[in-house]
């Protein structure tokens, strides 16, 4: 599909094929990023790499979202870097702001109290971002008819050429959630997240699946072990975030106020939800995706995976990741066992 020329109107209507299969064998899928005008160079760099490593052969569209209007310059220069269609969207105002369940005074006090305790501890906008990516991004009108998204971020690195379609791979294997890096979260940012989650489980046993991978996220003392999938890369079947269970869980978290009073990230929220609501076989580690985002990188080391990579094979974070080790070792548990874990 040829790129539009001249006008890059924000909130252009995105049209996707109504059927399961898209045009030319594409699924109803897109690469999606929340991004600021100031990150133009970073997102151009990311899109260029995603195109070079994978998307040049497919042409999945890009959807870029912003809480304020994108500038004309941003839209022009980003569209110029790729032949794929780029959609630019603004967030509905009701998706970006203080939740009804918290009070401004208490939020201000929390930011003040946490500003030197952890990164972004005093940042209000960071909290809006995490809450948005946890509870609203999948509801943006531009994503309406999409079945899948692959989240991208400005300034990351994609190291490896990919010779298959990961959306199709996940669909054909009945997978729901895909990740590449699994680090641990800073405990101070999620002090009450697991207690709040346990409460939701006990109140909603009917929304829990027969079998789940929730034990992956829980330690021997029945507390959250801080393991999560880094959501700056994630490939997800959006039916998961749109499900009744996920929405109920998000609403419960939002009511508890932790997105503001603490600094609950969308990564631990997505990850705990995935572990709690999915089975292990529905979660996929893309070991073949060489990737870097400030903090951690992953470079495939198996000869059959590293052939098309340009990274330093000494970047071995994931081969030493305690959360990946746990992923390999832990198995599913039944609903009753999950509820027992939640009761402890
Ligand atoms: P970090 O990865 O946790 O350090 O957080 P980032 O600063 O990378 O933010 C995560 C994603 O949200 C990135 O894609 C950012 O571009 C985007 N983002 C963060 N804050 C804002 C914001 O205030 N407005 C917009 N439009 N995007 C934001
Ligand atoms: Mn980031």
TrEMBL record:
Keyword terms of this UniProt record: Transferase
GO BP terms: cell wall mannoprotein biosynthetic process; protein N-linked glycosylation
One Gene Ontology term of the molecular function aspect: alpha-1,2-mannosyltransferase activity
GO cellular component, one term: Golgi apparatus
Keyword Transferase: yes
Pfam family, one: Glyco_transf_15
InterPro entries attached to this UniProt entry: Glyco_trans_15, Nucleotide-diphossugar_trans
Family named by the database record: Belongs to the glycosyltransferase 15 family.
Entry protein name: Alpha-1,2-mannosyltransferase ktr1
Organism listed in the record: Coemansia thaxteri
Underlying gene: KTR1_1
